Amino acid sequence: MKIKMNKVFPYSVVLFFFFSLSLTQNAITSSNVQPSLSSENMCNAYLKLQESLLVYKEIAARGGWTSVSKGTSSKRGDSGERVVELRRRLIGTDDLTNKGTKDENTFDEELHNAIVRFQRRHGLKEDGVVGPETIKALNVPVEKRIHQIEINMEKLKLMPQDMGKRYIAVNIAAFELEVVEDDNSVMSMRVIVGRPYQRSPLFSAKMTHLVFNPSWYVPNSIATKEILPKVKKESDYLVKEGIKVFEKEKGYRKELDASAINWADVTVDSFQYRFVQVPGILNPLGQLKFVFPNKYNVYLHDTPAKVLFERSSRAFSHGCIRIEKPVELATYLLRDDPAWTHEKILAMTDMGKEVKVQIPSPVYVHILYLTAWVDRDNILQFREDVYGRYK
Question: What is the pLDDT of residues 278-334, one digit of tens each?
Fold first, then answer.
């Protein structure tokens, strides 16, 4: 099997397999056996990852791949021993075909394209420049990649039995979201997930509604650890940020005059308030919030910090998941109601008024953590274990 590299994407094949496998296992153990899904669909994802495992074990048996020396970045047009090392390393995993180039010391177009393919299937910036992050990925030993594949094969067995006819899958490790319908990927986008010390949890829940121009009900931990110190330093901080203060004793229904509170005397332990940031350009939830009730109080939402989506590693949030294309996702979710046209959705976001809307056909959301899989184009994908779950 050649480790083909091409267009990236993802999880629906993997998820479909485990949904299928669970149905088949249930059918076998049931006294009322019903026809299940085809074995081709049932086994596809798992077997492809297993096939990749065999390839990597063969590579290990041959001594693994060669390493690439560290140093300054290499790019198209460069020459030298590092270029020779890159060629040997990429040939080792079929990222580069061994065509016997005329000058193996030159970083040519062929090598540039091979680097881009390698970067794409490892979730790195696809610029063809061999910098520290690319060298780090190139120098991961084959034994570690084998371990990574094996762990993910085991973790896949824990997938929910019924993913739903259509669903939203978020792979935290890949910083990606995919909308799947009838086993077809109908939408994908980049996401920003929780920091390693504020991890986004793994769970499944049904998305029931969305909120245009949502208020942000600041979690107590953020209010006390991040906002309170700023209020102590800057007396008008809450006013400038559009943050209202509510009293805990009144069930957070009584709004208080923030300027009348002696914030210098308020400590983390004595904090008895709720901060609520009104809708607007300063609100970190942006213009749309997608709600799937859960015990973690995690949701999908827009963000004003669009520039962060350009990063290859996107673990910046407090645990909720920021999405790249909120208007597109809202349009898809509200498509069963003809009143909600794309134009109306845009108008609602521009209005600035907080409005809750039920989703006509609720959809499941599955928050996953996969660091190795074979995508729809038979390309073996790897991602960094950003949360250190598989060490």
Answer: 999 999 999 999 999 999 999 999 999 999 999 999 999 999 999 999 999 999 999
Residues 104, 107, 109: CA angle, nearest 5 degrees: 105
Distance CA 291, CA 205 (A): 10
How far apart are the C-alpha atoms of 188 and 194, rounded to whole Å? 19
As a dihedral over the C-alpha atoms of residue 14, residue 20, residue 23, residue 27, rounded to 10 degrees, the angle is: -140
Reduced to 3 states (helix: H, G, I; strand: E, B; else coil), residue 104 is: coil
> Which residue did the predictor score with more confidence, 246 or 25?
246
Query: Tell me, what's the pLDDT at 127?
Result: 95
Which domains occur in the chain, in start order? 81-140 (1.10.101.10), 216-277 (no CATH)
Name the residues annotated as catalytic: 301, 320
Structure tokens at 22: 């669970």
Q: Which two tokens stand for residue 167?
A: 């669903």
Tokens coding 52: 């990749």
The residue written with tokens 């669970």 in the block is 22
User: CA 263 to CA 52: how far, in whole Å?
Assistant: 59
**Secondary structure element (H or E) that encloses residue 345, with its range:** helix 342-351
Convert 107-138 to b/e letters by CB count within 10 Å (16 or more is b). Answer: bbeebbebbbbbbbbbbbbeebbbeebbbebb
Distance separating alpha carbons of residues 305 and 285, to the nearest angstrom: 10
pLDDT, tens only, 85-144: 999 999 999 999 876 666 788 999 999 999 999 999 999 999 999 999 999 999 999 999
Strand, helix or coil at 286? Answer: coil
Q: Return d(Cα 287, Cα 346) in angstroms, integer.
A: 10
DSSP string, 8-64: ---HHHHHHHHHHHHHHHHHHHSSS------HHHHHHHHHHHHHHHHHHHHHHHTT-
User: In one letter, which amino acid is 76?
Assistant: R
